[in-house]
Write a structure and sequence with these properties.
Elements: E1 9-11, E2 17-19, E3 24-27, H1 35-43, E4 47-52, H2 54-71, E5 74-79, H3 89-98, E6 105-110, H4 112-125, E7 129-133, E8 145-150, E9 153-158, E10 164-167, H5 169-173, H6 177-204, H7 210-225, H8 227-231, H9 235-255, H10 264-278, H11 286-305, H12 311-316, H13 322-333, H14 337-347, H15 352-364, H16 366-375, H17 379-388, H18 402-411, H19 421-427, H20 431-443
Parallel strand pairs: 3-10, 4-5, 4-6, 6-7, 7-10
Antiparallel strand pairs: 1-2, 8-9
Helix pairs in contact: 3-4, 6-7, 6-9, 6-11, 6-16, 7-9, 10-11, 10-18, 11-16, 11-17, 13-14, 18-20
The chain binds zinc ion (2 copies).
Residues 138-139, 186, 266, 286, 290 line the site of one zinc ion.
């Protein structure tokens, strides 16, 4: 199913030409001995650096090395020695120093973190890379962005896409349950992404593509339909989840940015991730946080659907002066706050000059906005699927304290200049009320 979307250009009715940069995606039984080795031979790669962590070696790395030995393809194995590998300067340097500098391909065996490290190092070294993915835990396998920690900040570095990615459904289905559930969380987040995108299209006339929306929507529907199979570890159902995640990656490539796959549920996740990092706490899986953020975001739409705003009163409301906003943002974002403050100075998304004309549009289009909010998927569906998979659904279940949860709802929207339901709530003067409602519900 996914093959039809890659390695070609699509002249779209939206006016853009959509293109995916990944050349090959192979999902098949025993892929190491079939599609993967055939691909390596076909492309003539003869000197590899194989990269994995200890876990990846146990799951598939050893088998890859045995296969390369049997096929007479030379390689250098680089295995990270730490039990938990962080995507940071140390790991980047460790691979750069440990790789074969004359290799013609970096072959990654792993999931999120090891991929991000290899994506970056291969780009810097000017080498192509391919990935054997071992868990359906996130949608970034074919992305060109490398999410890395640099000077204690998590940043996305634009690098390059893998030439090819390989997956074995059996390996995927044997991934730890929390990683599979995280993949489901990342995928269900797309429900809110599409609604946020639609919202911004209505209010800001932001470019939007039906073709992309339909692909992402179909991926969501298939995942929801496969929930029982994913729950029981059925190979086909888990492969379907992986394919849905990959399609979401293809759609980011098509759009040229992450709009189809990242809305305010991701901003909430990024906020918690940043705070955990700065406070030296153990990282939580990306998709786990996104799942929790999705439920909050969809509650935001339910809240919007219940409103009957008095726009004259809203337009006259006192808004927080910039200085006061900056103090609060600096308290919430700690040493990461410079970027956030700079973004607001540049974008002015919270300025009265930008707010008032936007409010007029919201007033004029209120019936359309309210219908969008009322018709989007209910948070209860996402909650029930995540609960079925034993995944957390509320911030305190991953250790987020009351105040950090509240700050995320109030300030996560400052991470990007991207219109979402959290900005709409702020525009309507309702964000604090919404935050109070959620915090009281979750924390009592
Ligand atoms: Zn299009
Ligand atoms: Zn994601």
């Amino acid at each position: 199913m996914i093959e039809q979307y890659i390695a070609k250009s699509i002249d779209c009715a939206c006016g853009k030409v959509h293109k995916s940069r990944v050349e090959e995606i192979i999902i098949e039984h025993d892929v190491i001995h079939n599609g993967m080795i055939n691909y390596l031979k076909k492309e003539g790669f003869s000197r590899l650096t194989v990269v994995c962590d200890k876990n990846g070696y146990r799951i598939a790395g050893r088998e890859v090395c045995e296969m390369l030995d049997a096929e007479g393809i030379s390689y250098k194995l680089h295995m990270f020695q730490k039990d938990v590998v962080a995507p940071d300067e140390h790991s980047i340097g460790n691979l750069a120093m440990g790789m074969d500098l004359d290799c013609d391909l970096i072959l990654t065996v792993g999931s999120g973190t090891v991929n991000d490290i290899c994506r970056y190092v291969s780009a810097v070294a000017g080498k192509p890379f391919c990935t054997l993915g071992i868990a359906p835990s996130m949608d970034g396998y074919i992305s060109s962005g490398s999410a890395l920690i640099y000077n204690n900040l998590k940043l996305t570095f634009e690098t390059h896409t893998p030439k090819a990615v390989f997956f074995d459904p059996k390996i995927l289905a044997e991934a730890p349950r929390d990683m599979i559930a995280a993949g489901v969380g990342d995928l269900l987040g797309k429900i809110n992404c599409l609604t946020d995108w639609n919202l911004s299209h209505i209010i800001n006339d932001e470019w939007r593509c039906d073709f992309i929306v339909n692909i992402v929507d179909a991926a969501i529907q298939k995942t929801v339909a496969a929930r029982d199979g994913i729950d029981t570890g059925d190979n086909d159902a888990v492969a379907m989840l992986l394919e849905a995640l990959l399609l979401s990656g293809v759609c980011m490539d098509y759009a040229g940015n992450s709009r189809p796959a990242s809305g305010c549920e991701h901003h909430l996740s990024h906020f918690w991730e940043m705070r955990y990092l700065l406070e030296g706490r153990e990282a939580i899986l990306h998709g786990t946080k996104v799942g929790i953020g999705t439920i909050i975001a969809l509650k935001g739409y339910a809240y919007i659907a219940s409103l009957d705003p008095d726009f004259d009163r809203i337009a006259k409301m006192d808004r927080m002066p910039f200085d006061e906003w900056e103090t609060k943002v600096r308290r919430a974002f700690l040493s990461a706050s410079d970027e956030v403050v700079d973004l607001e100075k540049k974008s002015g998304k919270n300025s009265v000059e930008k707010l008032l004309p936007r409010l007029e549009i919201i007033r004029a289009k209120w019936p359309e906005i309210k219908a969008l909010a009322a018709n989007t998927t209910k948070p209860e569906l996402v909650k029930s699927i995540l609960t079925q998979l034993d995944a957390p659904t509320m911030p305190h279940e991953i250790g987020v304290e009351r105040e950090m949860a509240r700050e995320a709802i109030l300030y996560a929207k400052e991470i990007r200049n991207r219109y979402t339901v959290l900005q709409l709530l702020w525009d309507l003067g309702e964000l604090e009320n919404f935050a109070d409602m959620i915090i009281n519900e979750y924390y009592g």
